[in-house]
Design brief:
It comes from Sphaerisporangium dianthi. Belongs to the UPF0098 family. By secondary structure, this protein is α+β, with helices and mostly antiparallel strands. It has a single domain, classed as PEBP-like (Phosphatidylethanolamine-binding Protein, Alpha-Beta Complex), CATH 3.90.280. About 15% of the residues lie in helices and about 30% in strands. Strands 1, 3, 5, 6, 8, 9 and 10 form a seven-stranded mixed sheet that branches. A three-stranded antiparallel sheet has the order 2-4-7, with no helix packed on it. The N and C termini lie far apart (about 35 Å).
Length: about 180
């Protein structure tokens, strides 16, 4: 897939997520509004700066995250999308993690839960791509899905985002205003 198509897919996820419509593909699999998840981190508060140790100048990998409010009966898996939106309107996806066990409620620093898979980022790599632009807003979005995604590790960005959008039943977000 070309970088232009990846950029377009990333722009779609950022635009849709920022307007409250879900991610790529029009949001929820139903016409009902989505349930809300609570997302937090022991390392930074919502709208506070992302600690530099989780950026491209640090050595810590992904920050630890916690979430709650997952609709237990309907949720078959959890997905995480880390993206950025800058003042120029450019979108960049830094991490796509999917097929997380639905009973999981936290993600440790620098880790991928057992059984979870990762998709390709905007940079064309698999795994957490630490953010570098100090003034961007970074969003850590957690999605409760009504299915496990039938995708392989390293799945293409647009495919992964579309599948997440089609199966989202609840979502929540933790945002970092910039990098400290």
């Amino acid at each position: 897939m070309g970088r232009r198509r990846i950029a377009v897919a990333a722009a779609m996820v950022v635009t849709a997520a920022s307007t409250g419509c879900g991610i790529v593909g029009g949001g929820s699999p139903t016409d009902n509004s989505l349930d809300g998840l609570s997302v937090s981190s022991p390392r930074f508060r919502d709208e506070a700066p992302l600690p530099s140790e989780y950026s491209c100048t640090g050595q810590s990998g992904n920050p630890p995250l916690r979430w709650s409010g997952v609709p237990s009966k309907q949720t078959k898996s959890i997905a995480l999308v880390v993206d950025a939106n800058n003042a120029q309107g450019a979108a960049e996806v830094h991490w796509v993690l999917f097929n997380i066990n639905p009973l999981t409620t936290e993600l440790a620093q620098s880790s991928v839960p057992r059984g979870a898979l990762q998709g390709v980022t905007s940079a064309g790599k698999v795994g957490y791509a630490p953010p570098c632009r100090p003034d961007d807003t970074y969003r850590f979005s957690v999605y409760a899905l009504d299915a496990e995604l039938v995708l392989k590790n390293g799945a293409e960005l647009h495919t992964t985002l579309e599948e997440i959008a089609q199966h989202t039943i609840a979502r929540g977000r933790l945002s970092a205003a910039h990098i400290e």
